[in-house]
């Protein structure tokens, strides 16, 4: 990490709840520049601020990394997850492992399905886009003939999926559960396509008949 903003992030990783003056001293720039970078980092959701009292007088602002900020740094989570999944797959039958992912996805999505039930399809898709974003997915959708295509621009499980493609059942199952209709996988990054894509067939036609 060489840029000023990256040095600020690295400092906050090791010294959470740092003030602007502390950051300026650690990073080696003036306080005005630190404040400017912190404003941008807060807007990106990488840094948070809170008030802290230190003796007499007004409280000062101190800064820490958000969860998204921490995730910019290498961790051992990926290695640990792969090891756990390898152990599970050595212990349980393949069908059981796949069913575990499906059940987990259904439980994640089940609480949202009733809220979406009465919405028109395109409002459902907008809501699903937001809900999946909260799970770490970046999703876009488009009209396609008498149905729709949902494209995952990015997937939080991509690296895990390379070794454990069963994880791909999570997003497909979540979408199908929230929509209460089947969705068909028509593209996958693991197979060389640009996106993971899901097709919803004959929805426009059926809605027009209502």
Keywords:
210 residues; four-stranded antiparallel beta sheet; two-stranded antiparallel sheet; alpha+beta; elongated
User: What is the SS-derived class?
Assistant: alpha+beta
Instruction: Please give the largest β-sheet.
Output: 4 strands, antiparallel
Distance between the termini: 57 Å
- Spatial order of the strands forming the largest sheet: 3-4-6-5
Report the uncertain regions.
none
Number of helices: 11
Number of strands: 6
Helix content: 40-55%
Shape: elongated
What average pLDDT do the residues reach?
A: 88
Query: What is the beta-strand fraction?
Result: 15-25%
Question: SSE order in H/E notation?
Answer: HHHEEHHHHHEEHHEEH
Query: Cα-atom Rg, whole angstroms?
Result: 22 Å
Descriptive report:
The protein is α+β, with helices and mostly antiparallel strands and 210 residues long. 52% of the residues lie in helices and 17% in strands. The strands form two sheets. It has a four-stranded antiparallel sheet with strand order 3-4-6-5. A two-stranded antiparallel ribbon has the order 1-2. It is elongated, with a radius of gyration of 22 Å. The N and C termini lie far apart (57 Å). The mean pLDDT is 88.
Gist of the model:
The protein has helices at residues 4-14, 20-27, 31-43, 67-70, 77-91, 94-110, 113-116, 121-134, 158-163, 169-179, 203-208, and strands at residues 47-52, 60-65, 138-144, 147-154, 184-187, 196-200. The protein has 210 residues and is an alpha+beta fold. The strands form two sheets. The protein has a four-stranded antiparallel sheet. A two-stranded antiparallel ribbon has the order 1-2.
């Amino acid at each position: 990490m060489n840029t000023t903003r990256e040095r600020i992030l690295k400092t906050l990783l090791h010294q959470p709840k740092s003030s602007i003056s502390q950051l300026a001293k650690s990073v080696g720039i003036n306080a005005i520049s630190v404040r400017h970078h912190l404003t941008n980092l807060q807007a990106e959701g990488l840094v948070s601020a809170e008030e802290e009292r230190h003796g007499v007088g007004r409280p000062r602002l101190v800064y820490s990394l958000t969860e998204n900020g921490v995730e910019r740094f290498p961790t051992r989570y990926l290695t640990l997850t792969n090891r756990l999944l390898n152990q599970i797959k050595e212990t349980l039958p393949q069908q059981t492992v796949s069913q575990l992912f499906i059940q987990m996805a259904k439980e994640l999505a089940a609480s949202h399905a009733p809220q979406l039930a009465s919405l028109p399809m395109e409002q459902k898709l907008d809501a699903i886009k937001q809900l999946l974003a909260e799970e770490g997915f970046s999703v876009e959708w488009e009209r396609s003939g008498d149905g729709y295509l949902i494209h995952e621009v990015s997937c939080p499980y991509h690296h895990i999926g390379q070794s454990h493609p069963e994880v791909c059942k999570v997003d497909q199952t979540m979408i199908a559960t929230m929509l209460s209709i089947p969705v068909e996988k028509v593209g996958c990054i693991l197979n060389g396509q640009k996106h993971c894509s899901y097709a919803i067939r004959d929805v426009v036609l059926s809605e027009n008949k209502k």
